[in-house]
Design goal:
mainly beta, Ubiquitin-like (UB roll), 3 domains, 22-stranded antiparallel beta sheet, 3-stranded mixed beta sheet, 25 strands, about 10% helix, globular, Bacterial surface antigen (D15) domain-containing protein
Length: about 575
């Protein structure tokens, strides 16, 4: 590709991307690199695309001959993202728009979070022949579009950017000789940012029980359609989503009529949000501007067939549920650029700001109508050395002849600054979580088997309505890579307590874990991060082992793109 910019002429776009990434400032607010160009006219928008496995300097030196040939072959098989797909994802246009530092920062964040790009940068090139105009260069690098996974008896194949069109195709098959039918299948299609509307749409079906069934010990077929539009930038006024599905149970293991739960249900969920003071934001600027938004959600779960067993007749999982909830948000958000939080060295955008959400609604469940109110506050604070803290607190509950299903939750995670140890990188985190349920009616007892419990716990003996977890993790990022794979060596320690809702939690027994392991990831590929871990559980309950070895894939973890999400009840789990 021939750039029309003097500083980029005759250069490999991959070298340019590498230089921009290497020189990109981090531990700074995301808008800072663009501020000196604020208000300048955008003359041209130039898109430069880099091959998936484009490597420079030290990587090329260690990746010659057969490995390089393999990378060239994979690049040949891959179809780069179409330039119009990138253009449809821009918040500005050439000739008529001017540079807004905050919109540029939000746009770079949006592009980096597209699931088919491994990285993206927006770079502003000043012009020598005029001082009031600039060229904007968008440089992107795709992730390799093909992927596969094998889990138990399931084989899954997927393409995250089919034909370079910003669309995803998933196919899966399950072969299990113990079930009937022996073969199960699943397929789905996703189109991102339809026609530049920033609406994502998906449609699909599954007969392999991977669409979040309503209960444990059941097997479901599901057909679904989903639409979603986030409030993806500060100046957008509306967002929302729609989910429709039809689901029914399958007796794949030929259970007797006394054990098989024969049911079917329809699910409909729609929500919308409206942001205020957008015009004021455009006039006064984005810095330190408090924003307001309201959102409304309607959801219904309608059973067309219920299990015939008496034990499930009044079980909340198998009864109709309908609710409508509204939310008012008061929030402020900017982004902070850093590295080595969840990823293995590429730029990450950390939200900085706060969100106050006030929620109210009405729910009807098992012919029981009740009112809900709740309040949540979240704050992300960035410190001068690049360390930051994310804090959340929430209180919510229902009213029906008194208060019931009250939930109080506190989350706090501190992320240290990034330390350099010779050529290694170190960042540690310390987290605290507290959860209590008061006057439970539908809420069931919690345990330690969740993300907010203890890593690797799998015990049904420990239950309660109050939980406290304290933990820490240190992540050591290796300076070397092998065949493009990067390595994070981690150590972790956690302690937790469970108790009943009416007792003093600190008098209960401590449960703990000590662990170490390694996480492996190739950021050019769309595969999940591979984690290998060894854990020791002193004082573990009798229904689980004291030593655990794990080999699992973990999903990519990222902070939320916007504080305005689909209104939810504060969960108790």
């Amino acid at each position: 590709m021939n750039f029309r910019i003097d500083s980029l002429k005759h250069k490999n776009p991959g070298d340019t991307l590498f230089k921009i990434l290497k020189d990109a400032p981090y531990n700074v607010l995301s808008e800072r690199p663009y501020k000196r160009y604020q208000g300048k006219v955008i003359r041209n928008i130039i898109i430069g695309q880099v091959n998936v496995f484009n490597r420079v300097s030290d990587d090329i030196q260690q990746s010659r001959n057969s490995i390089q040939k393999l990378q060239h072959l994979l690049d040949f098989l891959h179809v780069n993202t179409q330039s119009n797909v990138i253009r449809e994802g821009l918040f500005f246009s050439e000739k008529k728009d001017t540079v807004s530092a905050y919109l540029m920062a939000y746009n770079a964040y949006y592009l980096r979070h597209l699931p088919f790009l491994q990285t993206a940068e927006i770079y502003i090139q000043p012009l020598t022949d005029t001082k009031d105009s600039v060229d904007v260069i968008i440089i992107t690098q795709d992730a390799f579009e093909f992927g596969a996974s094998i889990a138990h008896s399931n084989l899954r194949l997927y393409n995250v950017n089919f034909l370079g069109g910003g669309q995803r195709i998933d196919l899966a098959v399950s072969l299990d000789k113990n079930r009937s039918p022996k073969i199960g299948t699943a397929a789905s299609y996703v189109k991102y940012n339809i026609g530049g509307s920033f609406v994502d749409a998906s449609i699909g079906y599954t007969t392999i029980n991977n669409a979040a069934p309503i209960d444990t010990g059941v097997y479901e077929t599901s057909f679904f359609v989903h639409l979603d539009r986030q409030l993806y930038k500060p100046t957008v006024r509306w967002g929302g989503g729609l989910t429709i599905s039809y689901n029914y149970s399958m007796d794949v293991y030929s259970r007797s009529s006394g054990y098989y739960r024969n049911y079917a249900y329809r699910y409909f969920d729609v929500w919308g949000a409206w942001a205020f003071n957008v015009k004021k934001l455009l006039k006064t600027g984005f810095e330190n501007s408090t924003r307001k938004a309201i959102s409304l959600r309607y959801s219904i779960l309608d059973f067309t067939r219920q299990p015939h067993q008496d034990i499930y007749r009044l079980d909340p999982n198998y009864n109709n549920r309908q609710y409508i909830i509204g939310q008012y948000n008061l929030f402020q958000q900017r982004y902070f650029k850093t590295r080595y939080v969840f990823e293995f060295g590429r730029i990450e955008d950390i939200p900085s700001g706060y969100n106050l959400a006030l929620t109210a609604g009405v729910e009807k469940w098992i012919n029981r109508k009740r009112i809900y109110t709740g309040a949540q506050y979240e704050r992300s604070k960035i410190y001068t050395k690049g360390n930051f803290m994310v804090t959340g607190i929430g209180l919510g509950g229902f009213f029906k002849n008194g208060i019931e299903d009250i939930v109080f939750a506190v989350d706090n995670i501190y992320y240290s600054e990034l330390y350099t140890l010779t050529t290694w990188r170190l960042r540690y985190q310390i987290g605290l979580n507290y959860l209590i349920g008061i006057n439970p009616h539908f809420n069931k007892a919690i345990n330690l088997n969740t993300e907010r419990g203890i890593i690797g716990y799998n015990s049904e003996l420990l239950q309660g309505y109050q939980r406290l977890t304290l933990g820490g993790e240190a992540d050591f990022y290796a300076p070397f890579r092998f065949l493009g794979f990067r390595f994070n060596f981690f150590t972790v320690a956690q302690v937790a307590q469970l108790g009943d809702k009416g007792e003093l939690l600190f008098g209960n027994r401590l449960y703990s874990v000590l662990g170490t392991g390694i996480r492996i990831k190739n950021e050019s590929l769309v595969f999940r991060t591979l984690e290998i871990g060894a854990y020791f559980y002193p004082g573990a309950p009798s229904d689980m082992k004291k030593v655990g070895l794990t080999l699992k894939s973990i999903p990519n973890i990222r902070f939320r793109t916007t504080p305005i999400q689909r209104p939810e009840f504060i969960s108790f789990e």
